[in-house]
Specification:
- The chain has 262 residues and is mainly α.
- It is built from twelve helices and no strands.
- It is elongated and about 110 Å long.
- The relative contact order is 0.04.
């Protein structure tokens, strides 16, 4: 191929490319990158949206408090007032219980049985619903003053009152067994049987009383079984164990087996 044609072909190839191509590319890239305000505009737009959102939240919060604020404050005032009234009620109830307890102790400290019973009667009359402790103390006071029939009636009423705690009901039953001479041995044993459960408050005393009754009826084996239960129970008081030991020996219990169990 001739040399002038080669040169012409090279010039033609150069003519086919866009004029000022490299310079134009650089110019376009630099114009887009260096045009002022483009990046700042996006940042300012985000900040404006955040400010508007914050203002809307603040307006909604103020609107909520304008509408519901008085009710919220009223509820808070009621809560505080109720708490204060509840504390006052508790303090007043405690003071009343302490006053009744002091009055009961003062009445029981009176040595004369008649005067003591009169003071207990006044305490009972002063209450709409006398406590079980006061009712029991009055029944014991009636017995000490010689009014056995009145004491038996009061103890029966207390022993049969299911609204009273079992501690006071069973205490009334034990007093009733000691005072009611008209009660048969069968009824006594039946009453004691109901007081010998595993969780009964006076279980060991009831066992002792039942052992005395059945021993009087000649049933030594039953008496010995009840007395052995008392003597082997670590919860038994020393005075109770001493009485049970004397009865156990009088009933003919096996002392060697009791003292040296296998």
């Amino acid at each position: 191929m001739p040399a002038h044609q080669t040169v012409a072909y090279g010039q033609q190839s150069s003519a086919n490319s866009p004029p000022f191509g490299p310079w134009l590319s650089r110019t376009r890239r630099s114009s887009f990158a260096a045009k002022p305000g483009w990046g700042c505009g996006v940042s300012q737009s985000d900040s404006f949206v955040e400010e508007v959102t914050e203002e809307l939240r603040r307006d909604r919060l103020f609107a909520f408090f304008r509408r519901w604020g008085p009710y919220v404050i009223a509820v808070l005032v009621l809560i505080v007032a109720f708490s204060a009234w509840n504390e006052y009620r508790k303090a007043r109830a405690l003071a009343e219980r302490e006053a009744r307890g002091d009055a009961l102790r003062a009445a029981l400290a009176i040595e004369d049985p008649a005067a003591r019973l009169s003071a207990l009667d006044k305490l009972v009359a002063a209450e709409d619903s006398p406590s079980a402790v006061l009712r029991l103390a009055r029944a014991v006071g009636m017995a000490a003053a010689g009014d056995t029939d009145g004491a038996v009636a009061a103890l029966k009423a207390l022993a049969g009152d299911d609204a009273v705690d079992v501690v006071y009901r069973d205490a009334a039953k034990l007093r009733l067994l000691a005072l009611d001479a008209a009660m048969s041995a069968k009824d006594r044993i039946a009453m004691l049987d109901g007081m010998i459960g595993p969780d009964a408050p006076y279980r060991l005393l009831a066992l002792e009383a039942r052992a005395v009754i059945v021993l009087g009826q000649g049933e030594k084996d039953k008496a010995i079984a009840d007395l052995r239960t008392i003597l082997t129970d670590p919860a038994a008081a020393p005075s109770l164990q001493a009485r049970a030991f004397e009865l156990f020996r009088a009933a003919g219990g096996d002392l060697a087996a009791l003292l040296n169990p296998e």
